[in-house]
Write a structure and sequence with these properties.
This protein is mainly α. It contains 17 helices and no strands.
């Protein structure tokens, strides 16, 4: 049974969501600042940075599902998730600091970046996977799960945007400062402290609710058995459909975030003031998402909301770029240009985040479908899969950005006023084409997600009947006869 049977307390929503601040800090740093820092500031070839981050994903592919699986099997009087949330944040904070102040002599190389990236990613998994896996455990209500994810996304974005505000107002306040390493070191220290505080504070705030001895003690661990169970979970049809659509939309998001510094600096010619207001624009879009995603899920359900959000975000985001290429946009760098762009960005980012939160929330419903087929709960395994998809996407997005930057021959340290117009047009075209293809794939597959609200609620009702010991379970029999949300293999 879920920890909370009725309405969720407001305090629990806030405390649980606050744990996602660490993810927001990492996502903002990796997506907005990591590639420019190593490429434009430290002089590392963009291809080398992209290759190191892409290689780190191979390690993630092997280890992340094990983290989720081990989280599912953790058996303590504090439950399955809390021990991870108390232990992992401190080494994470240390490695995050080193990522922005590399402890190497000279220019960092491929192996240096790889080591730091792998350490940060794996330790963040050890925080984020157990934290987000609590959602299906706290409540089995379709809409309340969306509510918890709304607070997680709001907190994650607040963490990331706070770091952007601090970066553009304190650590990297001018285009010139963004090309010097000292500010990035301070950025890393501040973010590390905030990460540790958020994760440990969230765990402590939920302790009284989720700290219970699990009902079943898992059998002894074996690596072969672990991968067998992971494979069994990942072949669930609903998860595979989510993974394809989620991967596409997360890659598009990862590329958008990592290319944003290049686009804002060289395409839209942002001033210092524009850089300072940019986080506020993103914050407004996330607040708007927080207000509308719940009603959208009640009206359309999660799959349709995800697909429509992806397409709407694509159209709204690239309208200014298309007008710029057509010569119908005000002169870039002016107040008029920036103000109009900000209006488009507010609604474009709102739609995109609605799509992403809808996709992430879908994973919670896969838990009951898998439990119905196997009798096992695997929240950590499925959310490690979701986390793996997101991290692959972030790395893939950075890799695509690095390839685009290499193809337009943008030299490290190029000043804002020195970039050629031909280079700007190449950057915009490549960015638009790649993002369009990714978002179309995302919208198609997310719209085909096979678990509806009605199917989920029927599964929950059937599980409750089984838990009360009633043998006659026609609802459960009817749901089990529907193969749509189950495995694609016999």
């Amino acid at each position: 049974m879920a920890f909370i049977a009725g309405p969720l307390p407001q305090r629990l929503k806030l405390v649980h969501g606050s744990g996602a601040v660490a993810f927001g800090i990492k996502d903002s740093g990796f997506s907005f600042f990591l590639l420019p820092f190593y490429n434009l500031v430290l002089g590392v070839d963009a291809g080398t940075v992209g290759a190191a981050l892409a290689t780190a994903l191979i390690v993630d592919a092997m280890v992340d599902p094990l983290i989720g699986h081990l989280s599912d099997r953790t058996y303590t009087r504090w439950g399955r998730r809390l021990p991870w949330l108390y232990l992992a944040p401190i080494p994470l904070a240390l490695l995050w600091t080193l990522l922005w102040s590399p402890p190497f002599t000279g220019t960092p190389g491929y192996w240096d970046i790889l080591a730091l990236a792998v350490g940060v990613r794996l330790l963040l998994s050890a925080c984020e996977v157990p934290s987000v896996s609590l959602v299906p455990e706290i409540t089995d209500d379709y809409d309340d799960r969306t509510t918890l994810f709304r607070y997680r996304f709001l907190s994650g974005w607040l963490g990331g945007l706070l770091m952007m505000v601090m970066a553009f107002s304190v650590f990297l306040p001018t285009p010139e400062a963004q090309l010097r390493p000292e500010g990035y070191a301070e950025y890393g220290i501040f973010g590390a402290a905030l990460m540790a505080l958020a994760v440990i504070g969230s765990a402590a705030g939920q302790h009284s609710t989720v700290a219970h001895l699990p009902p079943l003690k898992p059998p002894p661990f074996s690596l072969r058995g672990a991968f067998a169970e992971i494979f069994d979970a990942f072949r669930e049809k609903a998860f595979l459909i989510f993974a394809v659509g989620g991967l596409a939309i997360y890659v598009a998001q990862g590329m958008t975030f990592s290319i944003t510094q290049y686009v804002n600096l060289y395409v839209w010619q942002f001033s210092e003031t524009a850089f300072m207001f940019y986080p506020a624009v993103l914050f407004l879009s996330v607040v708007l998402m927080f207000l509308v995603v719940g009603p959208l899920h009640r009206m359309w359900g999660k799959p349709k909301s995800a697909a429509v959000g992806a397409l709407a975000g694509l159209a709204l985001y690239f309208t200014p770029h298309a007008l710029l290429l057509a010569g119908l946009w005000p002169e870039t760098g002016t107040t008029t240009s920036t103000a109009i762009l900000f209006v488009f960005l507010i609604f474009a980012n709102t739609a995109s985040v609605i799509s992403i939160i809808s996709a992430t929330s879908m994973v919670a419903e896969i838990v009951e479908a898998f439990e119905e087929r196997t009798g096992k709960r695997a929240e950590g395994t499925f959310y490690s899969g979701n986390w793996l998809v997101q991290k692959c996407a972030t790395g893939g997005g950075i890799l695509l950005t690095s390839l685009i930057v290499q193809s337009i021959d943008l030299a490290p340290g190029t000043a804002q006023a020195d970039v050629a117009q031909g280079t700007v047009r190449q950057l915009v075209w490549l960015y638009m084409i790649t993002s369009t293809l990714l978002m179309l794939v995302a919208a198609y597959w997310l719209s085909r997600f096979p678990i509806t609200r009605e199917q989920h609620e029927a599964r929950v009702a059937a599980r409750r009947l089984r838990e009360t010991g009633k043998e006659d379970d026609p609802i459960g029999d009817a749901v089990r006869a529907d193969p749509d949300a189950h495995t694609i293999t016999p």
